[in-house]
Predict the structure.
Amino acid sequence: MTPLRKRMFEYMQLRNYSRATIKSYINMVGAFARHIGKSPDLSDWEAVRGYMLHLLKVPLSATLLAQMREYWRIYRPAVFLFERSVSGGPLSVRTAQAIFQHAKAASGIQKKSPHIPSDTALPPTCWKPEPTYETTDRTAANNRRYHKE
């Protein structure tokens, strides 16, 4: 096991992730590494962006595609796929969490997620962001907090 994979594995164990979640995340990072042809800790934001664009080209299942088309037909979002109904802006984190909890309850899933304080919820990244926009004081403070030298 590489040092990066070991660190990621230990981090997720400390956060009480399930074995299935850990395996899934490790596999996803492995797929990213194979796509870029090098270790993720040697990547940059452009590599992440390129991989995300690559994933968009992966075909969806017929069921998911039909559901997304139905969603689009009914709601016709203008900018964001899932928009606020009044302002048309992006959903708030709280709204997204409420939707997730509702879907989880409707599906019958009983597993409870561990509570992770919001100031520790972001995992340490292997690369520093390369901002292409003017950051606010709060954004700059968060970057210093989560992307330490």
Notes: The longest helix spans residues 19-36. Residues 115-136, 142-149 have pLDDT under 50 and may be disordered.
